[in-house]
Amino acid sequence: MKTATSMRPLLAAARSGSAPRSVRAASTIAGARRGITATAGARRTAVAPLRAAVGGPQTRAFSAGQRRQEEAFDPTMVERESDEVDVCIVGGGPAGLASAIRLKQLATAAGNDDFRVVVLEKASEIGAHILSGAVLEPRAIEELIPNWLDEANPDRFDGITPAAGDIMRFLTKKMALPIPAPPQMHNKGNYIVSLNQFTKWLGERAEEAGVEVYPGFAGAEVLYRPDGSVKGVATGGPGDCEGWE
């Protein structure tokens, strides 16, 4: 995820259609998974079992197993597959998906259809790790997707319940005393939603906008250039994702 200080160059690049400098990313999912499989297989076959025959030369069998272990496949020597993208966002929650959608909207409006935005999410599917309910203040989503509740929109989000009112209580061991809710905690015009369902819906809208969403890939480590600047992230398998400079 980019910091606030780096978003302005990103927005400028999206609007202008100019491609950023060297950027790499982890969209080689099949290749990465093949690498993981090969590594696991190599580990399973790396050590030969000892010969257990009575009176057999167990020392010789141990030496053979040790020699095979020395010749075993070293996963650290695998060439890491990589790809180049304009923006790589780690985390497919509401903030990451909304950022990806907005960047893609700006790029498309500027005629820059080749502007690539990638979202990496550690869960097996978008929303799987977002379990709580939430009260949604709708101003941001109305700016991002104006027709998100429009009855004429077949892709509208329909899992909402308008907030009916606010009740605040001060709890003691035996009593619940009503107290006035502060103005900043009033929920008039807000909606009660399942954040899990809302995030799944937002992920679908991101893919429709052209964002590349890759669930099942956690950002394992940050990759740095020799000068200390961040160049991207490495995923959990043999593959890496480098975002915009």
Which secondary structure elements does this structure contain, and how are they paired or packed?
Elements: H1 4-16, H2 29-44, H3 58-70, E1 81-84, E2 87-90, H4 94-109, E3 117-121, E4 133-136, H5 139-144, E5 160-162, E6 169-171, E7 176-178, E8 191-194, H6 195-208, E9 212-215, E10 219-224, E11 230-235, E12 239-242
Parallel strand pairs: 1-12, 2-3, 3-9
Antiparallel strand pairs: 4-8, 5-8, 6-7, 10-11, 11-12
Helix pairs in contact: 1-4, 4-6
Strand adjacency order, main sheet: 1-12-11-10
What is the name of the CATH architecture of the domain at 87-235?
A: 3-Layer(bba) Sandwich
Helix content: 25-40%
Count of individual beta strands: 12
How many helices?
6
Structural class: alpha/beta
What string, H for helix and E for strand, traces the elements in order?
Answer: HHHEEHEEHEEEEHEEEE
Our estimate of the beta-strand percent is: 15-25%
CATH C-level name of the domain at 87-235: Alpha Beta
The CATH homologous superfamily of the domain at 87-235 corresponds to FAD/NAD(P)-binding domain
User: Radius of gyration, rounded?
Assistant: 26 Å
The gross shape turns out to be extended
The span between the termini is 12 Å
Low-pLDDT residue intervals, each spanning 5 or more residues: 1-7, 19-56
Mean pLDDT: 76
| Main sheet characteristics | 4 strands, mixed
InterPro entries: ETF-QO, FAD/NAD-bd_sf
Pfam family, one: NAD_binding_8
Keywords: Electron transport, FAD, Flavoprotein, Iron, Iron-sulfur, Metal-binding, Oxidoreductase, Transport, Ubiquinone
Function: Accepts electrons from ETF and reduces ubiquinone.
